[in-house]
Structures are given as structure tokens and as C-alpha cells.
Design brief:
Layout (H helix, E strand, L loop, with lengths): L6 H15 L1 H8 L5 H25 L6 H22 L1 H4 L5 H16 L2 H11 L6 H22 L5 H22 L9 H11 L5
């Protein structure tokens, strides 16, 4: 279980960097022939939406009714759904009459990426390991995330826009599965409890 906790970060970074590295390409779809200034305007708008999502996450991440687990779960569900819709309905959504719907879905994915996995994956990685291996576990988790980013930056160059969205959706789905089965909800748990569990596991006892 501990080893699998590294990989939800990897799957999320495939989604995150796959989205961000090709942001200018998607902006050209939203507004064909956009100037550099217009591209910067769209990028600023997308960044502002991301900032709002991050701020909203900060407001609820320590609330017992939301917490890390539910926030990450919600984010993965909605981001995965948004990318799957964009990927499988790409040709339909990028027509003139539907381009605004495409834009809204894209911005929804930006908001719930921040109001979800981009906020929680690094935080959970810093809490889900016992003290004696916490920094090491966090570092390995971060390295797995960079592997996801590397995969996106190399492999996505070979894909068309629709397939990029699909692969982001697939990675989000894998992140969702990892979250459901392997990510603990530590919102109200004292981190010393992780140390107790770890010592009992080393001694061959159950917690």
C-alpha cells in the first residue's frame, strides 16, 4: 500500500503537465489565429481560475466534512470526466457553435485540478508516511510526479489534441482508482498515529 501512494502523484502530473505544456495549443483551438497578446490573455484567465480553485481548496481542506480524501476524490472525478468529454467529443466541441462549451469544460478542468489533486497530492504525500521516512517518502512521491511530467512532455508531442485529452482522462482515472483504494484520509488524524501504525507493522502486529 505504501508503494502505491507514490503513484497517485505520478498520474496527476501526467494530467497537470499534459494540460499546461500544451495550453497554447488549446488556446489556438479556442481562438484560431490568436496573437501573442491574446494568447497571454487566455493564459492569464486560466491562471486566475486555477488560483481561485487553489484558494477554495485552502478553505475546505482541513474541514472534517471535506478534508484531503474527499477533495482529491472530487477533483479526480470531475477532471477525468471533463477530459474524457473533451477527448471523445473533440471534433464536435471545437465547432463554431460549441466552442464556448469546450472553453467552459476546459476551465472547469482547471478549477477542479487545483480544487483537488494539485493541492492534495503533495500534501497527502507529506502526511501519509511515518516520521522516520516522511521526508524520503515525500521525495520519492515528488520524483514519481516528475516521471509523470516527463511522460507527458515526451509522449504527448506525438499525439493529436483529442488524444491528449483522452490520455489526461485515462491518467486521471488511474489517479482516482489509487485515491479510492490506497490514499488514507488523514484530515483529523494526529500524525503520531502513523508512527504507531508503522512501529506495530515492524513488530508484526496489526493496528
Amino acid at each position: 500500500m505504501v508503494s502505491v501512494r507514490f503513484f497517485h502523484r505520478c498520474f496527476w502530473d501526467v494530467v497537470f503537465y499534459g494540460n499546461k505544456l500544451f495550453q497554447s495549443t488549446f488556446i489556438q483551438v479556442l481562438k484560431p489565429g490568436a496573437t501573442i497578446f491574446e494568447t497571454m490573455e487566455y493564459t492569464l484567465l486560466n491562471s486566475c481560475i486555477a488560483l481561485v480553485g487553489y484558494g477554495c481548496a485552502a478553505l475546505v481542506i482541513d474541514k472534517p466534512w471535506m478534508g484531503r480524501f474527499r477533495l482529491q476524490l472530487l477533483g479526480f472525478v470531475l477532471v477525468t470526466a471533463a477530459f474524457m468529454v473533451c477527448g471523445y467529443q473533440y471534433d464536435r466541441l471545437t465547432t463554431d457553435e460549441n466552442i464556448e462549451i469546450f472553453q467552459i469544460i476546459y476551465y472547469i478542468s482547471t478549477f477542479f485540478g487545483q480544487f483537488g489533486p494539485n493541492c492534495t497530492t503533495f500534501l497527502v504525500a507529506g502526511e501519509a508516511f511515518p516520521t522516520e521516512m516522511r521526508s524520503t517518502g515525500h521525495a520519492i512521491s515528488a520524483a514519481c510526479g516528475k516521471l509523470g511530467a516527463l511522460f507527458a512532455s515526451v509522449y504527448f508531442n506525438q499525439l493529436n489534441n483529442a488524444d491528449i485529452f483522452k490520455w489526461c482522462g485515462y491518467s486521471g482515472l488511474l489517479g482516482l482508482v489509487c485515491t479510492i483504494f490506497f490514499v488514507p484520509d488523514l484530515t483529523t488524524l494526529d500524525l503520531t498515529e502513523m508512527d504507531v501504525q508503522w512501529k506495530l507493522a515492524q513488530e508484526g502486529h496489526s493496528y
